[in-house]
């Protein structure tokens, strides 16, 4: 019998549905949640990209490459048809004094309940994204999300005015001191939290080397388990593969520790549909064998092979 690599995730969403606590939340949507949940994925047994629903791998790899480039402007994502960060940049725009368009207050919730508003919202956001692509000055002002992951990973600001490249440093430490217990990258900076478009959800990750294998543990303070967590699992699995490639190691486990693991109230039906589907064999990750350093990888250098998922299941994003 083929091992189902995504089983830890399926058990997570079952457990939240069966044992979670109903809570109010920042978005006004409402959630059912559990606190302090851990999953473990053996990356040698397959790449943990869900098969019980199609997950857009191109979005995952373009977002990770965006992080690894130290970029914080959504223009790179839009150039690769990736819209998963649009809402946060859009929110900055419509809340600015320069915005003179239709009222977009609570656009996330209103677009779910008001079909006419949804049409207007989509057109306004479409124009916003096109302007980010076409207008350098506008993109610089409203496409930038502040000190989100790319900045914290590659350009951490020090009190003395310098920067720290955490990714470069952790790779060097893995190569030279693999037994270190300080192989850590953090994105959580209390000073930046008030000004960030979205304070980091995946706040800290740590590497561990044993028997020639590289494992990674992520601590995620908050996880939208239907929409976000499947991306996070695949993204950090991919990150582990990329850093293992650069450091000459095989891959071990990806351990995913969640603080507030939640399902939004308006995702309940979608989750129930997903857990009633039959999972399939996990795909295989292909990395261009000619590439070694993370800075060298482009979109075409990363692929998943033999990925045969069930159809995608749509759900609204809570902003």
UniProtKB/TrEMBL annotation:
Source organism (scientific name): Ligilactobacillus araffinosus DSM 20653
Active site (catalytic residues): 201, 201 (nucleophile)
Compartment annotation: Cytoplasm
Coiled-coil zones: none
Family to which this protein belongs: Belongs to the thymidylate synthase family. Bacterial-type ThyA subfamily.
GO biological process: dTMP biosynthetic process; dTTP biosynthetic process; methylation
Name of this chain's protein: Thymidylate synthase
Catalytic activity of the protein: dUMP + (6R)-5,10-methylene-5,6,7,8-tetrahydrofolate = 7,8-dihydrofolate + dTMP
Oligomer status and interactors: Homodimer.
Function as written in the Swiss-Prot or TrEMBL entry: Catalyzes the reductive methylation of 2'-deoxyuridine-5'-monophosphate (dUMP) to 2'-deoxythymidine-5'-monophosphate (dTMP) while utilizing 5,10-methylenetetrahydrofolate (mTHF) as the methyl donor and reductant in the reaction, yielding dihydrofolate (DHF) as a by-product. This enzymatic reaction provides an intracellular de novo source of dTMP, an essential precursor for DNA biosynthesis.
Keyword 4Fe-4S tagged: no
GO molecular function: thymidylate synthase activity
Pathway the protein acts in: Pyrimidine metabolism; dTTP biosynthesis
Enzyme class label: transferase
Domain Thymidylate synthase/dCMP hydroxymethylase stretches: 8-319
Entry binding sites for dUMP: 26, 181-182, 221-224, 232, 262-264
Alphabetical UniProt keywords: Cytoplasm, Methyltransferase, Nucleotide biosynthesis, Transferase
Binding site for (6R)-5,10-methylene-5,6,7,8-tetrahydrofolate: 224, 318
Pfam families for this protein: Thymidylat_synt (PF00303)
InterPro entries recorded: Thymidate_synth/dCMP_Mease, Thymidate_synth/dCMP_Mease_dom, Thymidate_synth/dCMP_Mease_sf, Thymidylate_synthase, Thymidylate_synthase_AS
EC number: 2.1.1.45
Gene field: thyA
Domain of life: Bacteria
One of the record's GO cellular component terms: cytosol
